[in-house]
């Protein structure tokens, strides 16, 4: 360490960074996965104290999707001058069918598609100053409060999910369990996760932590999965307004640590680990996807020799429905258009109709496929060779399948 | 904007980021360019209040390099818990010869080489979590205090430099000018920079600034180039120790705004614009290099079809001295080894011998050429096709020449 003979002012650096971060704002993308009726939307609305997620099941607009849909909604929120673009991705239909074989596939596919979009932007020749980040930073997995054990679908789905995204499991609607049942259920789940090598977030191996942080993570891992209760109604308790659920037996205060573990979850996701969730997504999950993708190209020259641009080196393979291929050319990020729609209007509540940015039923295999836009928004035209390579790839199940199959 | 119904805690984000920044530390790379005898080393030592730069011209070890050398020295400094790895790159020999034709070429070549190193790391399949940043963030250009005008070499050199790096011009040894001479000289220089389209730092077109920042930059541009005096000796003035130069006519206090403009320079480089300098380097200069480089490959397929890996797509073209090509295989960043040498020993003053990390005389064209290490530190072997492409490229003057020629 070189000694300084006087004050020079490099301690201003954190303030310089803070100012820039404030000016730019933040992005955070959270996904909820779990059977219907486990209070996923309510939990998100409780976490962010606003109507950021709507219930997909309601009396006026009854529907039970026949396929799994992926729906993303973006909201701009602000607190003490910090602006956050929050995107909530819902997965209605997951686990709700008679046959739930591979019901996690559309979810991992969606997650990988976001990496693919990011990768295409990252490797394009003329790229934007800041790549819009639609990558899923956090996946909240809702476990039904059975008190028995994880269901096979939970184990199989989480096994796949933890390979591509930060998974935080929660025991939903935990007010249905007594404290004894809850603690026993937790221990069983922890054992099952361990037996199946399911590494949920936080996982220390990805980060250089100081002692305090490592200790905190150790404590968190012992408490996982948090047994939570969501509620958006507030009640007056000793002159103070608290969020809670009024039952016949009394008021369950969601932020009261004696009643449930909601506050642990909120503290972790928002107040201590939000930036960690983003960093692990970028440095671990995205990098792993990028590496798999580039190695696939390297090992199969037919996927490399397209039209000779670097962009096409990692072009996403199209879905068989070719006509949809250039549909989204002008909109590289599925949610970037959404982002401008919501904040510009300063609408506290946006109607469901214009708020659902992406609906991708999987059975029809017609997920809108990202074309290959370069930074100018122009679609990169492919030559015959490229098309042949793509046809070859599509025949083999497409790129996402390739990534998926390694999991 | 979606309304929040209670406090959720996203204002903790800046603190989360600050903690991570503190843990990781910062990197800052500054280059000094100017004729010998203008006090470049003294100025750097004054800016950073330490012996981070040594004089290349001294009585014991007299030498006047026949070629322009590029020398980088890294130091770890710390202030109030903020750690900074500071690298100072000196360019002794610049403008010191009878014929100074193209004397800026080794400098722009060095700058581009750092971009090339970074680019190779960025596009490799298995890449490091954090790419060591050896890119030059700031180039201090020293103008001789003639009082007349810029010399042709200043105009020609700065014309090239501003295309690849943030240039901050300073009037060196400004104590030799009266205030009237100084102000007149400044106006002349400002006019000459304008006439020659030399856009020095700060240049607002690269950043989205708020009103206060834009106003501050406007003020700075009016004051540029700062007329500075460096000094590392301190004197007692009214009971306070101040840095100064004792002349026959009195004491020149370097931090006194009535004596010279050193404090403006220090405030800009360290206290208000250090992060800006880094961001503009990454988002403007590096991106421009990357784009030129990838477009060169795109337009000349012989440079693309190497051994089929993405790494080789933008392999640096070797210098004609082929035997040196794999010399630095194990050391992707020319200064990363230096970084571990200095702080580990906790040596406040390091002798010149083990402190000069890179010396690249240009006439001999034997600049140690970066091999193509992947993240494992393994050198990527080239096949015959790749070697042919490289030979082709070297024949045409190499990649840096290509980039350079567009300037």
Description:
- With 407 residues, the first copy, chain A, is an alpha/beta fold.
- The first copy, chain A, has two domains: 12-303, P-loop containing nucleotide triphosphate hydrolases (Rossmann fold); 339-395, no CATH class.
- In chain A, 38% of the residues lie in helices and 14% in strands.
- Chain A contains twelve helices and nine strands.
- In chain A, the strands form two sheets. A six-stranded mixed sheet of chain A has the order 2-3-1-4-5-6, with helices on both faces. In chain A, strands 7-8-9 form a three-stranded antiparallel sheet, with no helix packed on it.
- In chain A, helix 7 packs across helix 8 (274-299).
- The longest helix of chain A is centred in the last third of the chain and has 26 residues, at 274-299.
- Chain A is globular.
- At the A-B interface, helix 1, strand 2, helix 7 and helix 8 of A face helix 1, strand 2, helix 7 and helix 8 of B.
Summarize the structure.
Chain A is an alpha/beta fold. The first copy, chain A, folds into two domains: 12-303, 3-Layer(aba) Sandwich (Rossmann fold); 339-395, no CATH class. The first copy, chain A, has helices spanning 13-24, 40-47, 105-123, 152-164, 179-195, 211-223, 262-272, 274-299, 310-313, 336-345, 384-395, 398-405, and strands at residues 26-33, 71-79, 82-90, 138-143, 167-171, 226-227, 234-237, 240-247, 250-253.
Main attributes of the structure:
407 residues; Rossmann fold; alpha/beta; six-stranded mixed β-sheet; 12 helices; homodimer; disordered C terminus; three-stranded antiparallel β-sheet
């Amino acid at each position: 360490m070189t000694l300084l003979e006087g004050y020079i002012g490099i301690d201003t650096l954190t303030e310089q960074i803070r100012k820039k971060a404030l000016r730019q704002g933040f992005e955070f993308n959270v996904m909820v996965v779990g059977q219907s009726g486990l209070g996923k939307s309510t939990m998100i609305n409780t976490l962010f104290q606003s109507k950021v997620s709507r219930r997909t099941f309601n009396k006026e607009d009854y529907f039970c999707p026949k396929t799994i849909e992926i729906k993303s909604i973006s909201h701009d929120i602000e607190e003490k001058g910090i602006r956050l673009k929050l995107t909530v991705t819902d997965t209605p239909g997951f686990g709700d069918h008679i046959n739930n074989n591979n019901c996690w596939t559309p979810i991992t596919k969606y997650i990988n598609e976001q990496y693919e979009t990011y990768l295409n932007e990252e490797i394009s020749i003329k790229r934007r100053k800041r790549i819009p980040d639609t990558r899923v930073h956090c996946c909240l997995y809702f476990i039904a409060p059975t008190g028995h054990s994880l269901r096979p679908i939970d184990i199989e789905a989480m096994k796949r999910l933890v390979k591509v995204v930060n998974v935080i499991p929660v025991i939903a609607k935990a007010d249905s369990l007594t404290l004894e049942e809850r603690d026993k259920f937790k221990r069983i789940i922890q054992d099952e996760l361990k037996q199946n090598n399911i590494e949920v977030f936080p996982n220390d191996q990805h980060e250089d932590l100081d002692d305090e942080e490592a200790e905190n993570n150790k404590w968190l891992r012992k408490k996982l999965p948090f047994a939570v209760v969501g509620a958006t109604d507030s009640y007056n308790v000793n002159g103070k307004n608290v969020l809670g659920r009024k039952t016949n037996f009394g008021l369950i205060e969601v932020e009261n640590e004696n009643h449930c573990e909601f506050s642990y979850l909120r503290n972790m996701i928002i107040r201590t680990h939000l930036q960690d969730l983003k960093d692990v997504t970028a440095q671990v999950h995205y990098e792993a996807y990028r590496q798999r993708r580039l190695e696939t190209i390297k090992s199969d020259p037919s996927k490399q020799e397209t039209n000779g641009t670097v962009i096409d080196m990692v072009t996403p393979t199209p879905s068989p429905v070719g006509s949809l291929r250039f549909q989204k050319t002008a909109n590289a990020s599925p949610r970037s258009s959404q982002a401008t729609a919501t904040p510009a209007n300063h609408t506290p509540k946006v109607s469901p109709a214009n708020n659902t940015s992406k609906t991708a039923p999987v059975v029809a295999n017609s997920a809108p496929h990202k074309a290959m836009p370069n930074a100018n928004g122009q679609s990169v035209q492919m030559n015959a060779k490229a098309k042949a390579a793509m046809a070859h790839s599509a025949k083999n199940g497409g790129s996402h399948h390739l990534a998926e199959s390694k999991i």
